[in-house]
Amino acid sequence: MPTKTSGHRKFARSAVAALAATCLATLSACSGGSQQPAAQSVAPDELSGKLSIVLSSNGPSDKAFEDFTTKFKAKYPKVDAVFTPISNEVYPQTKSAQLTSGEADIVMTDNVMSYPEYAEFAKAIDQQTLEAGGFLDLTDQAFLKNYTSSIVDSMRFDGKVYTLPVAVQYVTGLYYNKQIFEDNKLTAPTTWAELQDTMDKLKKAGIPAFGWGGKDVWPAGLLMNDVVAGVYPTDSDKTALRDGIWDGSVKLDADKPLTVMERVQTCFENSLETSPGLGYDEVPALFAKGKFAMLPDGTWNHTSVLDAVGDKFEVGYIPFPGGDSATDNKSLDYKLDFTLAINAQSKNPQAALAYLEMLSDPENYAAWINTAGSSPSQPNIKTDDFLDSIADVTTDAPLVWEKIWIASPESGEAAQFPFNYPDIKPLGKDSAADAAKAAQEAWHPAS
Fold it and tell me: What does the pLDDT average to over 399-408?
């Protein structure tokens, strides 16, 4: 998928397939273990025993969990809480084995959701583990109310919640140079028509509207996700689009899907000429030099962008206005960055619940998220000035398209996203219409 994935989110399915099959079989045999303990809040002196938190290693989040685990042990002195970061390369194998043995109490998971019947093949290992009864049901835990409801709801499976979304990243935003906008008497666009007007005025002033790192390909896909977010603004809109593509009622080379491709092409045509050959990490410096006016990028890169700009000019950040109405463009689309689950085979489920409950307390959570460096999945959490400034466009945010879309293994490369942005010139060699036609021809639902 197009967007960059954080290091701790890279899970390799092929490396653990055989082990996972064995673990899933074991979990299926005792799936009743997914029932949650009756008690929710337990007095500190009533909890004891070992608590093992086994997570994929990532520098900032490792420090955040180390600090929080120390705080947890101070409140629950009889609990031997141990945080163990595991290298990304071996984490899937380690997690699978420790879930089955009950050695790990809390683990990190990949995205889970309710899959349509036509996409059974696409279920990741964590999804299979959940469905085999491998994770504790968190649905009735009061601490879930501390998190943004739309984010929690996106993770439900059969109406229940098994994973805790402790961090997110926002994908469909647009950094813009406020000095360039002021000098050219421009205001931040809120609709596609206003963005077209902005692009036209910038072109007359000799200023490219956008810059992006096409050498790595996926950064150009941010523009695709951006436009989809406006044309299909809600989770239900995106889900209906996905289902329509799969059942053949929606064609990739007609109507709204073609509109998506045409708008991506317009953005490409109004970009810094060298964008197709730039590396992702090169772009913030060029933005800081005023080489273009707007940078489509996610919140995970805001520190790099702001550090590059320094005090040269003020930076704004808005939802990409890819839709026709301001209402369609009112929110940033997100992706999950960090999710936790409790092992259904945990030997100390009450302590595990107490750990998640304490982490979810807004004061503790604020300290954790600020150290981890992600965007908060709880509302009204103070982080840095930049993330605080976009709080009003993250309330009830929809899930980004690439996390809803399910690719077919029987389709060709042109239909993998399935919006065929890599073939649109100047990144590729085709017009939007031809690239869309190639995607439709390449699309074949899994049989």
Answer: 97
Checking if the pLDDT of 22 tops 70, the result is no
Crossing angle between the packed helical segments 255-269 and 432-442, to the nearest 10 degrees? 130
Nearest CA among 147, 173, 153 for reference residue 390:
173
% of the chain residues with pLDDT over 90: 87
Question: Residue 252's Cα: distance from chain center in Å?
Answer: 24
DSSP string over 353-408: HHHHHHHHSHHHHHHHHHHHTSEESSTT----HHHHHTGGGSTTPPBPGGGT----
The answer to whether 199 touches 266, Cβ cutoff 8 Å, is yes
Of 233, 239, 254, 253, whose CA–CA distance to 405 is shortest?
239
| Order of all β-strands in the sheet with 106-109 | 79-86, 49-56, 106-109, 334-342, 164-170, 375-376
Kindly state the tokens that stand for 127.
Answer: 């999804």
CATH of 7-170+335-393, picked from 3.30.870.10, 2.60.40.10, 3.40.190.10, 3.90.76.10, is 3.40.190.10
| Mean pLDDT, residues 203-227 taken together | 98
